[in-house]
Design goal:
By secondary structure, the chain is mainly α. About 55% of the residues lie in helices and about 5% in strands.
Length: about 80
């Protein structure tokens, strides 16, 4: 969960540095893989297994931050 929070923080800092108040609510496949600490191929496998659900409203799949958080909560060992 810390990696995701770090990614969100970096995203906010990058937007602020570019004098842009825009905050992205979803990550690309590569950004999702980096946030989870896995390869993009692993993200594809998680999608194929139905464990991670991308938003496909655009040309490329995007992974909303709440979806990534849900995945982490549901698959974490307690």
């Amino acid at each position: 969960m810390q990696r995701l929070e770090d990614t969100v923080r970096l995203n906010q800092e990058n937007a602020a540095q570019m004098n842009n108040k825009e905050f992205r609510l979803a990550l690309t496949r590569q950004e999702t893989a980096k946030a989870l600490g896995v390869t993009p191929i692993t993200v594809d496998r998680l999608v194929a297994r139905g464990l991670l659900r991308p938003c496909r409203a655009l040309r490329r799949p995007l992974f909303p931050l709440p979806e990534i958080e849900r995945f982490l909560k549901e698959t974490s060992a307690e």
